[in-house]
Amino acid sequence: MNGLRGRARSRVLTLEAVDVVVAGGGQAGLATSHQLTEAGIEHVVLERSRVGQAWRDRWDSFTLVIPNWTLDLPGFPYRGPDPDEFMPRDEIVSYLESYAASFDAPVREGVEVTGLEQTGAGWTVKTSASDLATRAVVVATGAFPT
Q1: CATH number at residue 31
Q2: How confident is the model over 87-108, as a mean pLDDT?
Q3: pTM over 0.85
Q4: Overall number of domains in the chain
Q5: Does some domain include residue 4?
Q6: Which of 144, 47, 36 is nearest to 93 (CA)?
């Protein structure tokens, strides 16, 4: 046992540290990421599936019931031909993907946040991939999920 007999083995875990963790890759999470990027604040956006997943989960024929211009996001206004029309689901998803790409949003797709634990002046964000140490967390998972 290489001289470890009778002594407890200790294991030191090093967490990846990031200033801010944003949970959710929809409009709110991406808009937050844009503003953090503009401010020069290191952050990561964690999305359980893919950018705009809540929209992807809607039925095939889904369309907005509010005009397209209402989707304007910071630094990325609606540029389509019909600002007063109603965007279908796939166009909404495409718009969000284009928005994330426009400022190279630091999105990690396929990473689910499974818990938060306050640790001193910050947080440990538990995820399906690995835990992260952060000083701030933005929960941008939408209005209705649990």
Answers
A1: 3.50.50.60
A2: 97
A3: yes
A4: 1
A5: no
A6: 47
